[in-house]
User: Fold this.
Amino acid sequence: MPRAVPRVARSSSLRTCVRMEPSTGVELVRVRGSMSGISETEQRAVTSVAGVRPPVGQERQRLRRSFVFGVANGGLLLLGDALIHPVLVLAVFVDRLTENRVLVGLVPALSVSLWFIPQALAAALVEGRSPQMPWAAWGGVVRALAIGLLAAFALAGLDDERLLVAFFLCYAAYNLAAGFAFVPLVELSARAIPADRRSFFFSQRNFWGALLALLAGLVVERALAGGESGFAFLFAAAFAALALAAYTTVWIAERPVPTQPRPLRAWLEDVPSVVARRSVRRFLVFRSFLALSTIADPFFIVYAQRHLGLSPDVAGLYLALSALARVATNPLWGWVVSRWGNRGLLQLTALLRLLMPLLVLALGTLSRWDRFIGAVGDTERFAFLVFAAVFLAYGAALSAQMLANFTAVLELARPAERPTLVGVTNSLLGIVALVPMLGGFVVDRLGFEAAFSLALFLSLLALATSGLLAAPRRVVR
Assistant:
C-alpha cells in the first residue's frame, strides 16, 4: 500500500505518481515537476517518501534481480534446513547412535541457541557498515562446507562414537555460521527491498521455502526407508542446497546507504538502552516463553517410534505434512498480519504450540483406556493420525513464527538500530533455546509424558504473556 505523501505548498508544480512493478510487486514512487516552490524541509519530506530516485534501466533490473535471488535464497536455505531437520531427521540420527536422551535434546538446542548467540557479535561488526553482502555470503559458504564435511564423515564408515563427535562439531559450526550470517542477510534484504514490500518479500521466501520443504519430506521418507546410508545422502543433498543458497546471496544488490561504523565499545554502551524499551522487553518475555515451550520437540518423533511402534520412514511423511501446513497457512498468516498485526500472529503461534503437547498427552491417556482401545481397534493407525495432527500444527506454527519474527523485530527497530536489535534479541533468546537439552533430563528421570506436560505449561505461559506485546502500528491510508 502506498505511503502517505506529505502535503506540499500549492505554489509548487510537484506531483507524485505511484505504480506497481509487476515482476516484483514493488511500489515505485515517481516525483515529477520542480521542487523550487517548496521549502527545504518539505523537499526532504518528499524525498523521504520517495526514498531513492525511482529505479530506471539498470537500477530496475537490479531491483528485480535482488527480489528474485532473495526469494530463491530463502527457499534454498529452508530446503537445506528441511533435509537435516533437527526434530524429524537429526534427532532420529542421534537417537540411533546413543541411548543418552540429553544428547538427543542437544540437537534442537544447538540448532536454535548456536544460531541465535553469535548474532550480537555479528550486529556489532556489521552495523553501520557497507556493504553487507560479503558478510552474508561468506557465512553461507561456511555453513554449507560444515554440512559437506558431515556428509564426508557419514560416508567414511566411522564407528558410532566417533561419528557422534564429528556430527556435533560439524553441526555446531553450521549453526554458528548460519546465525552470524543472519544479521547481515536481514540488513542486506532491508537495503535491497523497499520497506513497504518487505512483508511480501519475506512471505514469498517463506512460501517457496515451504514448497521445497514439502519436496524435502518426500526425499527424507525415501532416504530413511533405505537404512543408515540414507542419512549420508540427506547430508550431501543439504550441502548442495546450501551451496546454491550461498551463490544466490552474491546476486542481491544492496542500495547504498550512509555508513556510520561505531567502535565495539560504543555499540555495547547502546545495547542496554535498546533492550530497556518497554516494547522490546515485553517481546523478549513472550519470545522466551515461546522458546521454552519447545522443550519436548525432539521427543515427539522418538516417542512415536519407540513407544508407539511407528516405522522409521514416518519421519519423512511427517516432514512433508509439516511443510504442507506451512504452504497452506502462509497466505492465511499474511492476511492475519494485515488484519491484526504481528501480535495477532504471534498469539496464534502460541495456540498452535499449545495444541502439540495437548494432543500427545490426550493420546497417552486414551491409549490406557480399554474401552477406547476396543472401539478404535487399530491403535497404531490412530497414533499415526494423532501425530500427523501434531506435525501439521508444528508446520503451521513454524510458518507463522518465521513471518512474525522477521516483521516484528523490524517493526520494533528504528532504522539505525536494526542490526543491534536483531542481534541482541536473538542472542538473548539463544540462551533460552538450550531448553530442549533440559527436556532430555526430564525424559530420562521422569519419562516422556512429564516432558510433554512441561511443554504444555510453558505454552500456556507464552499465550498469557502474548497480551503484553505492543499493539500493531496504525497504517496511514
Observations:
- The chain has 18 helices and two strands.
- The longest strand covers residues 15-21.
- The beta strands are 15-21, 26-32.
